[in-house]
Design brief:
151 residues, two-stranded parallel ribbon, single chain, 8 strands, elongated, alpha+beta, Thiol Ester Dehydrase, Chain A, six-stranded antiparallel sheet
């Protein structure tokens, strides 16, 4: 379920609001392998199912940065800001990976629009995000993301 706002003034009114949860997406071995190819990180814990089955997690796991990169498509399910000229990722204040994402797991984002602050030409939003693992006791990632929207 996506919240749609039109312009910066409507976005400001959402400050402090829970944004809900995205749909679940499966983290497949194919997605992990594609990420490994894109980044050059082919560590066996990610891309060798036979060896990873004997490793500490009993299966291949997603790269932490793959999990983090999925924040953007998951976040776009939560909030759509229309009526702005430019949208940019500005950075992260903090990120933690409390639990690995095993191949075949499903993850989703739960988000809160922590703040909306004026910057020259637009606003900067801070989103508190938790990437949950379906059925998991701990989240895959806990993060605070910064994005900017320009009028």
């Amino acid at each position: 379920m996506s919240i749609t706002v039109n312009g910066i003034d409507e976005l400001k009114k959402l400050a402090g609001s829970d944004l809900g949860a995205s749909e679940w997406i499966e983290v497949t071995q194919e997605r992990i392998n594609t990420f490994a190819d894109a980044t050059g990180d082919h560590q066996w814990i990610h891309v060798d199912p036979e060896k990873a089955a004997e490793g500490p997690f009993g299966a291949p796991i997603a790269h932490g940065y793959l999990t983090l990169s999925l924040f953007i498509p998951l976040f776009t399910e939560l909030l759509d800001v229309e009526g702005v000229s430019t949208k940019v990722n500005y950075g992260l204040n903090k990120v933690r990976f409390p639990s690995p994402v095993k191949v075949g797991s499903k993850i989703r984002l739960v988000g809160k629009l922590a703040s909306v602050e004026d910057v020259p030409g637009g606003v900067q939003i801070t989103v508190d995000g938790t990437i949950e693992i379906e059925g998991g006791a701990k989240p895959a990632a806990v993060l605070q993301s910064l994005s900017r929207f320009y009028a």
